[in-house]
Design a protein that fits this description.
Shape: rod-shaped
Radius of gyration: 29 Å
Number of strands: 0
Distance between the termini: 91 Å
Number of helices: 2
Structural class: mainly alpha
Helix content: 55-70%
Strand content: under 5%
Order of helices and strands: HH
Largest sheet: none
Amino acid sequence: MADSTIDRARALLAPPVRRASPWAALAAAGLAATAAMLMAGVMVLGPGVRFDEPAAAQPPFPDG
């Protein structure tokens, strides 16, 4: 009786078997590609790029 209980306990304590998923690999590759594209865009634009507001958003009197 005690031996079967110990065997069942050992079976429950065994780590689960992980199967490789092609979808997880595809999602990781997509995330890496997206991050690479965003970082490339930051490098192309650089820190000195400034986007001016369109004329419709600017006040009619710039000095106040």
